Amino acid sequence: MTNDSAPALLPEDWTRALAVVAHPDDLEFGSSSAIARWARQGKEVTELLVTRGEAGIDTIAPEECAPLRMAEQRASAAAVGAVGVEFLDFPDGTLEYGLPLRRALAEAIRRHRPEVIVSINFREHFSGGSAFNHADHRVLGPALLDAVRDAANRWVFPEQLTDGLEPWSEVRFVAFGSSPKAGHYVELSGQDLADGVASLDAHAVYLAHLDGFDQKSFLPRMAEMAGEWAGVPLATGFEVFEV
User: Fold this and answer.
1) Taking a C-beta distance cutoff of 8 angstroms, is the pair 167, 161 a contact?
2) Packed helices 31-40 and 190-201: angle between N→C axes, nearest 10 degrees
């Protein structure tokens, strides 16, 4: 974490969240442990994947890879108690900022009516890392923040307002996990972390193609580091935008 100010607890006085990321496995690198905590509290969290992750494994053709990764994401969501998983089917690896993406995200927000939205870091680098962030992640963040405003304005994408669908202006904040600019944290229990590790384990085919990556130690180590930053035993951090 690089935010120099004292971190604050992420508010949890809400009941319904939409977790929006680009790829299967994005949520599992930290945020899924928080989803496990919230599910245990009785909150409803739905996962929305913008792509099917079909370009994520070099040795598996996209038409074969997509169903594998979608199945892994559904198993991963079940491990942390998410209430459902949806896919928007934008192309993996070539996500573009623009009206089609904003339109699809706004429609999902209007339909699910979340109080909170969770996503993955869209900054150039991840917390504690120097590698350049994935293009899809960097595109999704700004589009998602704009779509929250779009969803609240009945004159933006008004063709969506049929069959009882109405504008939705009750999103309180958007929280981006694993951000180098994190200022909020969620304290995790040992069970929350174990559920998060299980959710990452569910991506077995994908993980088998990552050389030298040990998910069993990665998430506990990251939770301990975030806990040290937050002043608790285990935590995960978020960059929060009020909208």
Assistant:
1) yes
2) 120
The DSSP bridge partners found for residue 242 are 173
- Distance of alpha carbon 241 from alpha carbon 243, whole angstroms: 6
**Token code pair at residue 12:** 């949890």
Beta strand pairing status for 44-51 and 16-21? parallel
Strand partners, 185: 9, 237
Q: Mean pLDDT for each consecutive 10-residue tract of the chain (243 residues)?
A: 76 98 94 98 98 96 98 98 97 98 98 98 91 97 98 98 96 97 98 97 93 85 96 98 94
Strand partners, 183: none
Enclosing H/E stretch for 20: strand 16-21
First and final C-alpha spacing in the chain: 23
Strand 235-242, strand 184-187: pairing? antiparallel
Report how far Cα 86 is from the mean position of its chain's Cα atoms. 13
